[in-house]
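Why do we care about 3D structure at all? Because function follows from shape, and shape follows, mostly, from sequence. That is the central idea of this module. The next example makes it concrete: a single protein chain, its amino acid sequence, and then its structure expressed as tokens.
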Amino acid sequence: MKRKLALFDFCETLVDFQTADNFVHFIRKNESSFSMNMKESVRMVLVKSGIMKILEKFSTESFNKKFVLWQIKGFDANKLDQYAKKYYSEKIRPAFIKKVLSEMKNLKKKGSEVYVASGGYDIYLKEFVKEFELNGVVCTKVLFKGGKCCGKFDGGDCLGENKIKLLDIFFSDKKINDYDTISYSDSITDLPLLKWTNKGIVVSKNKVDSWVKKNKLGELVWGN
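And the structure:
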């Protein structure tokens, strides 16, 4: 009998909002930092002027996300770790999507290896992995040098096709074809992930998405 492995996207799949940029916004609001506020002002000018949209066309990664992350450049690793715990407790835990969380728990209970595969940041996602005793996380990592945040990705953003590259590296020591694999995500941008596993499940809020049947995927609908 094949071993089982499940991959869960995080933002708007296990939790009902986008967590990466909001983590930095959370820090900025708590810090009241002049430097962070200035950097945010620069970002907003680029967004409102349309320059950010132009920059996004020339990259496989989000320039907007990079500009947001840049705001925490220079922060001490221990300080960010404390913010991550606070953010997880105050913002993430209350926003769990219970139906998907229950699905994750059931798969784990039945013997599946369970991993998070997300464009969210490792700083706070490790808190989720720890709480639910999951097998691991493949995600966007924040670069640190000398105990200080560089305000950059470490190894690229874990989205789209790059998520598959990171998964291939992460599972390179496993014979992944020997596993019965399943993945869960809310977004069509994660179609590479949903196709990478034997079965892909689209997590949808309140309605059935048209692209699900077209790509021969399953669906888990939650909400009112």
